């Protein structure tokens, strides 16, 4: 059900995306009317959260049913959980996933005391988070801890931090109780940590996972979990995760290979690598080796023999995951994007540089998985077509599990090739009702995502 406006995009970006979803190949396949309907539905569903929360269970530490039971007990201790019956359902095809339905939209009366949060903070509230103090942009002059407040998201990022109120474009996301005085949030001159507003009546009711079973239950979008299974890591292998931060997929790969072998995680931002190391330690995964490094330079012909850290000799890895930097247009919920068309279109060259390095790093017979969380052809199907032309030794492989849809026409790929790709398109089933079984909704009501699996022959 639609309660928010369609995602706000710059006109040139909206036109570009419309061209993607109404390209000639697609129009020839489904017709103009249906393509237009899909595109308009996409713009609407992007501003809304998925209808469930996806939890990746650490089944290398405990059985799935034990984790489900502990999670049920923890969530029932939350105040919000006492109002509605909790349903925690195992995914039928992804063995380490638990699904929790989101209750909403719920209709709450707006209060006179208003807090304005940044857009990212507002998006997080729609997926179960409280409002953390750094995300608060405006609040009443005399707000005190304990005050009941309505929370709004600053859709276009135009609210001045420290304001008393804001009348620009904003969206109501629910009611809560202030945990801090205004003076504590804005009066210290330092960044204030902790919860600023505890959400009691969110528009979408989803359990907060703040401190809930951190070593056993990991919040992760379903397609991101599917990526790890599609890669198919096996015990004893050496695997490269080229763009690893914040490390969810890295740790999943290590768990899937029973922590036997080596997972090399690379990223260019040093403090993010420390986060990967901490997560791996918390999950008792000793096979993860994290390095701050530019993955486009991961291979060097000057290196002889095995090395613990980058760069590495050619053909050093059994499997490579390239979860590539992308325009991120598939993320949900997202009520507005201020990106220019130049920014949206800036990623394919970097993705191709990383792909070149990935192919060089991969052993013959090895598996390369390429994924993005965006919607464009240029970053998805067109990259597959380019890779097959550029690297004659690469072939597409079937994916398991294949719970998303096929690739989208528009890049000149033949139907057999499109059937081997996995594109998650939430617009195709966004209007499914609550009567639709949760597992059926979960496979389609996701973020926008893309996965391709190659073998190097």
From TrEMBL:
One of its GO terms (molecular function) is RNA methyltransferase activity. InterPro entries: MeTrfase_RsmB-F_NOP2_cat, MeTrfase_RsmB-F_NOP2_dom, PUA-like_sf, PUA_sf, RCMT, RsmB/NOL1/NOP2-like_CS, SAM-dependent_MTases_sf. Residues 142-457 form the SAM-dependent MTase RsmB/NOP-type domain. S-adenosyl-L-methionine binds at residues 243-249, 267, 302, 323. GO terms for biological process: RNA methylation. It comes from the Eukaryota. Pfam families: Methyltr_RsmB-F. The active site is at residue 373. PROSITE patterns: NOL1_NOP2_SUN, PUA, SAM_MT_RSMB_NOP. Keywords: Methyltransferase, RNA-binding, S-adenosyl-L-methionine, Transferase. Belongs to the class I-like SAM-binding methyltransferase superfamily. RsmB/NOP family. This is NOP2/Sun RNA methyltransferase 6. It comes from Hippocampus comes.
């Amino acid at each position: 059900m639609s309660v928010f406006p369609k995602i706000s995009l710059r006109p040139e970006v909206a036109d570009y995306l419309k061209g993607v979803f109404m390209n000639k190949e697609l129009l020839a396949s489904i017709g103009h009317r249906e393509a237009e309907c899909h595109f308009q539905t996409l713009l609407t569903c992007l501003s809304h959260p998925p209808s469930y929360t996806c939890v990746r269970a650490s089944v290398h530490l405990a059985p799935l049913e034990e984790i489900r039971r502990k999670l049920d007990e923890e969530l029932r201790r939350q105040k919000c959980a006492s109002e509605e019956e909790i349903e925690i359902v195992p995914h039928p095809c992804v063995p380490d996933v638990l699904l929790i339905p989101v209750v909403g939209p719920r209709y709450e009366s707006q209060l006179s005391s208003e807090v304005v949060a940044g857009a990212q903070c507002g998006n997080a509230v729609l997926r179960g988070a409280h409002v953390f103090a750094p995300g608060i942009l405006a609040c009443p002059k005399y707000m005190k801890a304990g005050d009941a407040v309505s929370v709004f998201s600053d859709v276009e990022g135009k609210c001045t931090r420290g304001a008393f109120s804001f009348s620009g474009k904003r969206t109501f996301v629910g009611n809560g109780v202030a945990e801090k005085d205004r003076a504590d949030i804005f009066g210290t001159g330092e960044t204030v940590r902790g919860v600023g507003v505890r959400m009691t009546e969110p528009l979408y009711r989803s359990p907060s996972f703040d401190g809930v079973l951190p070593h056993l239950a990991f919040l992760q979008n379903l397609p991101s979990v599917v990526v790890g299974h599609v890669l198919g890591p096996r015990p004893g292998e050496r695997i490269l995760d080229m763009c690893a931060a914040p490390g969810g997929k890295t740790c999943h790969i290590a768990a899937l290979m029973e922590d036997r072998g080596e997972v090399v995680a690379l990223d260019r931002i040093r403090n993010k690598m420390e986060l990967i190391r901490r997560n791996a330690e918390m999950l008792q995964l000793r096979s993860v080796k994290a390095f701050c490094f530019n993955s486009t330079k991961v291979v060097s012909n000057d290196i002889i023999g095995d090395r613990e850290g980058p760069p590495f000799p050619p053909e050093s890895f059994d499997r490579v995951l390239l979860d590539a930097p992308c325009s991120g247009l598939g993320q949900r919920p997202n009520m507005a994007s201020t990106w220019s068309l130049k920014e949206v279109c800036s990623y394919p060259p970097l993705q191709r540089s990383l792909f070149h390095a990935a192919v060089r790093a991969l052993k013959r017979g090895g598996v390369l998985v390429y994924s993005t969380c965006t919607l464009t052809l240029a970053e998805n199907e067109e990259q597959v077509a380019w890779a097959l032309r550029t690297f004659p030794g690469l072939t597409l492989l079937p994916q398991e599990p294949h719970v998303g849809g096929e690739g989208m026409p528009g890049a000149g790929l033949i139907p057999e090739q499109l059937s081997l790709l996995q594109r998650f398109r939430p617009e195709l089933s966004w209007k499914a009702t609550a009567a639709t079984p949760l597992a059926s909704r979960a496979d389609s009501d996701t973020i926008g995502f893309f996965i391709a699996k190659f073998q190097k022959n």
